[in-house]
Specification:
single chain, 433 residues, alpha/beta, five-stranded parallel sheet, four-stranded mixed sheet, 13 helices, 16 strands, 20% strand, globular, binds zinc ion
Length: 433
């Protein structure tokens, strides 16, 4: 359908208001408009209301199919991905995941093992239409010395196809070893990475968070936290992070993932936290599939009664930047997944009610995470921007979100890519023993 030529025009394409900033067109109640998209030399040269442009280039009528910008996945763990066959979660709980992953990491995560699984994940993400990925990297010693060089090499290999970013991942208690943490922050800075920790309600939490901010300020790093991934109402580290950001006068970007416990807390506490989060300019990413899998799992005799996700509607209403992302794929934290951001958006629509109205929720898988990741212009369709977009079969939200859209067309720099998903059998030799 997409011509293999330098310039052409996609006529009768359906684009969404939230992802086409400044576009003058008539949008329907679902936020869609029919447009003609002109592509030249890998870039979008113009977007105009359907039938209004007379550009001479070859025109292809896409029949009102939805065209979205390529996705941005701002929270993944591609260093853990696909270990499930050799290290499943024994009971589906968070502790089961933590212990199983720790044992697998210590025993099996050589540079070659990490690199091959990372590459597999990136090939999947690319085929599904993702153009940028942030991964966390387990950085508990000695893994940081193995995984960071692998990430740096992988970022080079994938440059031009996927913008790859990494954040270090350690439990907040690891910050107590000041010397080692300072060394880690330096390593992260050398790799132009992002400083990240998992916060727990330890007695010295405030002091440790302060140390994290101090190192980020020293090296000019952005921050990325895993916070409150629990149903425990006493888990309030999101608030502690917002407070620390305010009193440190932090000017970098801060992304906080999960924040599950917030949905279980009394309204007054929630309002206080959200005020601080908004004031501090924090962005929040919810991981709906992983949260649904791990949260509210008590034992196999009970039915989960809580969806596990955080309060994205209330956050967005206050101007807090919100995103959804993949999180784990086929590892003890989540048994499924393939870094398909359309699946994430479909699941988020159902779990988090991204509908009635859809409003600007599509930004949560594109423009919003792109801003958090400082990817200028990514996650939008605009004249002058790169021609990176996905042509779906669906012509409405109900058509788009009812099928897997396995036959979507992914266009990068104006050309349709080969959408070959890697074969699971490729990883078989890493799974034995
Ligand atoms: Zn995570």
């Amino acid at each position: 359908m997409i011509p293999d030529s330098a310039s052409y025009r996609l006529a009768n394409a359906r684009v969404h208001r939230s992802l086409t900033p400044g576009l003058a067109a008539i949008f329907d109640t679902d936020g869609f408009a029919l447009v003609d998209i002109a592509v030249a030399d890998g870039k979008i040269s113009s977007i105009a209301a359907h039938g209004k442009s007379n550009a001479g280039a070859e025109a292809i009528d896409v029949g009102g199919r939805i065209v979205l910008p390529c996705f941005v996945d701002c929270h993944t763990h591609i260093d853990k991905g696909h270990i499930w066959p050799r290290k499943p979660n024994p009971d589906g709980t968070f502790m089961g995941a933590l212990n199983a992953t720790g044992a697998d990491r210590a025993a099996r995560w050589s540079a070659q093992d990490v690199a091959r699984r990372m590459d597999f994940s990136l090939r999947s993400a690319y085929a599904h239409g993702t153009r940028a990925v942030r991964t966390h990297l387990d950085s508990v010693a000695p893994q940081e010395e193995i995984s960071w060089p692998v990430f740096e090499a992988m970022r080079e290999t994938w440059r031009g196809r996927i913008d790859l970013q990494a954040a270090c991942l350690i439990g907040i208690e690891g910050v107590r070893d000041r010397k080692w943490f300072e060394k880690l922050a330096k390593r992260v800075a050398a790799a132009k990475g992002v400083l990240g920790v998992v916060t727990y309600m330890v007695p010295d939490l405030e002091e440790l968070i302060d140390k994290v901010f101090a190192e980020a300020i020293k090296h000019g790093l952005d921050l990325d936290f895993h916070a409150d991934e629990t149903d425990d109402v006493a888990a309030i580290s999101l608030k502690k992070i917002a407070e620390a950001s305010l009193w440190n006068g932090f000017e970098g970007n801060i992304l906080v993932g999960h924040c599950c416990s917030l949905a279980r807390q009394p309204d007054l506490d929630v309002l206080d936290t959200l005020d601080k989060v908004a004031k501090a300019g924090l962005a929040v990413v919810s991981l709906p599939m992983c949260n649904l899998y791990l949260q509210d799992r008590r034992n196999n005799a009970t039915t989960p009664r809580w969806r596990g996700v955080t309060l994205l509607h209330e956050m967005k209403a206050r101007g807090i930047k919100v995103a959804v992302a993949s999180d784990n794929t086929r590892d003890p934290f989540y048994a499924y997944g393939d870094l398909d951001m359309l699946e994430v958006y479909r699941m988020a629509t159902r779990i988090l009610h991204f509908d009635h109205p859809v409003g600007d929720w599509p930004k949560a898988v594109a423009a919003a995470p792109a801003e958090v990741m400082r990817l200028d212009g990514a996650g939008t369709l605009a004249a002058g921007g790169s021609a990176d977009f996905i042509v779906f079969k669906g012509r409405s939200w109900t058509e788009l979100l009812s099928r897997p859209e396995s036959d979507r067309i992914v266009v990068r720099a104006g050309r349709a890519i080969e959408r070959q998903l890697p074969d699971y059998a490729e990883l078989d030799e890493l799974m034995v023993g």
